[in-house]
């Protein structure tokens, strides 16, 4: 009975071995340095600064893998060095001010307001730089905060010193204690349960493959719901079925894991490791994983179809055929219906087989990754799997690749040829009338048609992409492990960087053919107030002008708020009447809390304020328990302190998004317990002589809680004063930026598709080819688009924590906008991928238009999309109404195709899928226009309203993706099938 309960508890806590290792690992450094306070040698050297070492050790980020750890701590050491130099500069300037304002008979050690003012000004500027850097470069947040803590610990104290020797000694003592704490924390991170980016990359790759299997399972459930009609029998009117939710969750998991694996690969190049894959091979594996995302994201179209089924304007349908055929008799209709059900059953079985094979392929890739980690130096494992010993076709077997390739090869598969399925499907497809005259049952038939057709096309593409990954892993899994050194140790790394910089200057020259160029404005917008510099003087002026540009940014404004928040309390340490109080009551702990807790926006700050207050209160309660449960005996205090550190470390590992809350709680525990142990070791008399007050533990614990809470509350006040930077405005600006990046991404996708259809894309390995340059721009834009989208979603989550005055915020509209923007990126990526997947670009080009010269006139991507998105970006970002006359965008029919395309069934399926993806995208753009119009309004004039009303009846009805042209092509396939 106990074992099931324990297993349920571990499952609820998600306490696996990896979490346990990280919990123990991250709790050791601060606990060890709290124990080091009991050393006479340690306490004799560092004195009252000894408690700072656990803080420095806790900021090492021991849970990071080696590559990220070294990069993080290199930046941290640089921050410490800058803070130390700045403190010495502040001390020297203060000393010079003291010397120049003290008379010959004056006491140089007495209070000097000039010296205090000079040091306070330098401290203020340093805090402004710190908060500005934290806002402009979020990856430097922790490093800048901890370096500023070092500066806070040094600068107010050295303002009181009267000799450069004492200034240097005091600053060096604090600097060394931080370096000692960092060194111990770094040694712990590298030696105890060491992690490598390669190991975490393998872990993330396994998670990606698990996500692929989960996607296949959820997609199979979606298809089952569509075919069985479960969706359409719902009386609730909602389409958020379990299958749709699982599919969307699995797609989100795959995207997150691929992004995580990509991040680990970048840092793996800095590691010295023992593995089977070189850095370039890891990059190739990561690239193959990234290539799985576009076809997998196309499966979300099925979920999107299911969610839009209840909207009549969003149903995909066929137009009725008007080719003069006689109306079918009742017997023919009945026979066609029976054949349709048979074809539908065969199609569903084929999709199930492909899904199962893809899941098996993902399992095979996982086995290959695991086995490559168990190879010895000779490349042979000590044990052989059952599958390999039997030569089976199961995942992990030696013949699995041939079995997998047979399923997804061009000519068909083992059970039922995809070509025959498509022909039978086309021959017996449901005949649906125009949208205005169709019934809900025919809508359901149409939905099933497109869900099955698109699923087949995408699963084939996904299976072939996964096959490339399987072949690559199979070719390399039998090799022995080797020592892999960091790439920066080799001269070719630096020569390649230098060569790329030189080569990039003249990358646009190509011999012959059309030129696929991206305008310089695409990468760097022009300044509307200044023309480009024409000479050296103007170039120098542009550099000087960048200073004012920095001062005008929102990052500089946030830095000013942070500096004001710090100086609100720090000024107490520079005034004559309050200076002794500042040092006696250790108000610098409040400054620590400000540096670690002050946010940019009011909504997130409100949430984090409550969380940090609760965290520090929990640390105070834990300190009472730790101190008195063992009757104030030091060994017991140290043991229970480590247990509390383990609790905080577990919360940090389990909920990393709330890191700042747990870190402030850890700092509060170190301050409360560490200083009490330090006072007991040094002696109360020595502590009092240094200017610090000494109280009993039952008094000092809540007192220190009050000091830390004072800092947290002060930071919050300066977040909302003199005016709050609300989540509302941040969400609006972030959403507008996402719209702008989406338009740039769309234009880049459009040019990529054009270049492919013109057969002028070039080789992706050639840095001068359009393919290489376009792919580089696409990756950069996609990462920026995803980053801005994540920022917008984060602001959206904190809306509930913001105090709203006046009218309600249109949260529902913004939520739908973010949802549309999220899937629009998937639509674009899928379009680019499908154009690349096609092996006959002429077929796809012919599906839209042809010119008399035989060169396809590309009308693949509808006109006006990018301009419409930029208009929405401008209106939402500037807060001004939309211009009048923004009509709904439409998309034409697929034109009639000649009989020579009948053999290109798979190519036509890709063309139809691209067409339908764009139809959905246009529908989303129209919906975006309506939502932005709802938020910002629209300029309306009476004569425009009358003009629109007079032209409404003459407008051509918006068409649906698969229309009469598709029916024409499908009828051609019917004829060809009958002739066969």
UniProtKB/TrEMBL annotation:
InterPro entries: ArAE_2_N, Memb_transporter_dom. It is found in: Membrane. Residues 312-347, 360-393 are annotated as: Disordered. The keyword tRNA processing does not apply. Residues 365-378 have a biased composition (Basic residues). Keywords: Membrane, Transmembrane, Transmembrane helix. PANTHER family: ARAE_2_N DOMAIN-CONTAINING PROTEIN-RELATED (PTHR37994), ER TRANSPORTER 6TM N-TERMINAL DOMAIN-CONTAINING PROTEIN-RELATED (PTHR37994:SF4). This is Uncharacterized protein. GO terms for cellular component: membrane. Residues 574-717 form the Integral membrane bound transporter domain. It comes from Cordyceps militaris (strain CM01) (Caterpillar fungus). Residues 320-345 have a biased composition (Basic and acidic residues). It is a multi-pass membrane protein. It holds the Pfam family ArAE_2_N. The chain crosses the membrane at residues 78-97, 109-128, 140-159, 171-193, 556-575, 609-630, 637-653, 659-677, 698-718. Residues 111-347 form the Putative ER transporter 6TM N-terminal domain.
